[in-house]
Amino acid sequence: MRGWIATGAAAGVLAAAAWATAGPQDGEPPAVIGRWDLTVGEPGRSHPSWLEIERSGHRTLVGRFVGGGGSARPIGKIVHENGRIQFSIPPQWEDTREDLQFEARLEGGRLEGTVTESGRVTRWVGVRQPPLPSGREEPAWGSPIALFNGRDLSGWRLRHAGGKNGWSVQDGALANRPPRTDLVSEQAFRDFRLRAVLRLPRGSNSGIYLRGRYELQLENTPGGDPLHSRLGCVYGFLAPSFDAARPPEEWQELEATLVGRRLTLRVNGERVIDRQEIPGITGGALDSSEGEPGPIMLQGDHGPVQFREIVVRPAR
Q1: Domain extents for the chain?
Q2: Per CATH, which fold does 145-314 belong to?
Q3: Cα-trace Rg, the chain
């Protein structure tokens, strides 16, 4: 196993140092500062989420939150009193017009709390985001593994057992027609380089989830929001430096190198993301276990997409 550089711990030290320089009247930085991987709901009926808490100025806490779907949304203020945090955020894709109300307490190194949505209270638990390799040095790569054999769905499973399958092989390409559910590779990976050759019809929307947690958006919307609608963006977190997509209906080539949480992405041979850190999981992730290997997941419940090639080279 390669050495793991504790970037998360280093960030915590820097945050503590910054808090200390604010003046003695501010005291110690709250232990809740940092990034948290959340599990919302009871076992068997839970979904992953993500929370970031940071300091703004001398005393104010702010942050970001990712729910079971959608993208990261800002938290304008987090109240921290008597060991408890409280904050509210407006709905994004939730079926309510009321703000979501969060509260939690740090217990034994974990955040244990509740979220109230339209009067319904759901419990959640958060663990600190684990440190991962810095990604500053590229590892040696192993032999390529073809996840799609060009003939059938061998090596893949549906995200939801018993769900309706819309995936099949059509003219040598893996396609979700009609769109129904996500497709998950049976193999899991830690650090890897992924090559995918894909095609989208005009107006379609799909995604590739790296380790099942970080969505590369597959969308061709000319002039669209670079954080949400540009081919290859990490949904809601990282925008490509420019639009390297070919027109709809043409085959697109993506090469994603993921080491730790640091991503380098090429679209049609052009480097559009260069060793940038993905802050946390994106909406729709399989889980929030960021320290573990994870599969490749193809989003299949939005719009149609075709894959001609999906190849992974794991790090040695």
Answers
A1: 7-128, 145-314
A2: Jelly Rolls (2.60.120)
A3: 20
